[in-house]
């Protein structure tokens, strides 16, 4: 599967859920944190005001998540475009033999993991990971090797590849 978009692959359900989360975090929740900071400021001395510091920390985490979601959603590949052509790419459930052991996983985004229905044991690997990059574009029956982060060479034999239907 060749594509010019280098974003994460998401199911439509995951995309919609993340869009709703972004709307909540950047709207009502952001305002709630601002209100908590304001109320804590009114209590006086900020140096010893635990509520103020906790709210400021929460504000930083919230703004970080907002930025993460915006970047993810702007570049996301939504699941409907996955073709059932046996070629490994984002959105495909892959059965492979990795270093001699059978494994089944989704090549996509970890954000999809929360939307998995049925096969709760299905792991999710990024197409940008060393293994994902090595197998992307290969077909059933192909055998490829990649270098793991620990420096070892790992062989992957692709047994099956089909679109995620969860």
TrEMBL record:
<dbReference type="InterPro" id="IPR036953">
    <property type="entry name" value="GreA/GreB_C_sf"/>
</dbReference>
<dbReference type="GO" id="GO:0032784">
    <property type="term" value="P:regulation of DNA-templated transcription elongation"/>
</dbReference>
<dbReference type="GO" id="GO:0003677">
    <property type="term" value="F:DNA binding"/>
</dbReference>
<keyword id="KW-0238">DNA-binding</keyword>
<dbReference type="InterPro" id="IPR022691">
    <property type="entry name" value="Tscrpt_elong_fac_GreA/B_N"/>
</dbReference>
<protein>
    <recommendedName>
        <fullName>Transcription elongation factor GreA</fullName>
    </recommendedName>
</protein>
<dbReference type="GO" id="GO:0070063">
    <property type="term" value="F:RNA polymerase binding"/>
</dbReference>
<dbReference type="InterPro" id="IPR001437">
    <property type="entry name" value="Tscrpt_elong_fac_GreA/B_C"/>
</dbReference>
<keyword id="KW-0251">Elongation factor</keyword>
<feature type="domain" description="Transcription elongation factor GreA/GreB C-terminal">
    <location>
        <begin position="85"/>
        <end position="162"/>
    </location>
</feature>
<dbReference type="GO" id="GO:0003746">
    <property type="term" value="F:translation elongation factor activity"/>
</dbReference>
<dbReference type="InterPro" id="IPR036805">
    <property type="entry name" value="Tscrpt_elong_fac_GreA/B_N_sf"/>
</dbReference>
<keyword id="KW-0804">Transcription</keyword>
<dbReference type="InterPro" id="IPR018151">
    <property type="entry name" value="TF_GreA/GreB_CS"/>
</dbReference>
<comment type="function">
    <text>Necessary for efficient RNA polymerase transcription elongation past template-encoded arresting sites. The arresting sites in DNA have the property of trapping a certain fraction of elongating RNA polymerases that pass through, resulting in locked ternary complexes. Cleavage of the nascent transcript by cleavage factors such as GreA or GreB allows the resumption of elongation from the new 3'terminus. GreA releases sequences of 2 to 3 nucleotides.</text>
</comment>
<dbReference type="InterPro" id="IPR023459">
    <property type="entry name" value="Tscrpt_elong_fac_GreA/B_fam"/>
</dbReference>
<dbReference type="InterPro" id="IPR028624">
    <property type="entry name" value="Tscrpt_elong_fac_GreA/B"/>
</dbReference>
<keyword id="KW-0648">Protein biosynthesis</keyword>
<feature type="domain" description="Transcription elongation factor GreA/GreB N-terminal">
    <location>
        <begin position="9"/>
        <end position="78"/>
    </location>
</feature>
<comment type="similarity">
    <text>Belongs to the GreA/GreB family.</text>
</comment>
<dbReference type="GO" id="GO:0006354">
    <property type="term" value="P:DNA-templated transcription elongation"/>
</dbReference>
<dbReference type="Pfam" id="PF01272">
    <property type="entry name" value="GreA_GreB"/>
</dbReference>
<dbReference type="Pfam" id="PF03449">
    <property type="entry name" value="GreA_GreB_N"/>
</dbReference>
<keyword id="KW-0805">Transcription regulation</keyword>
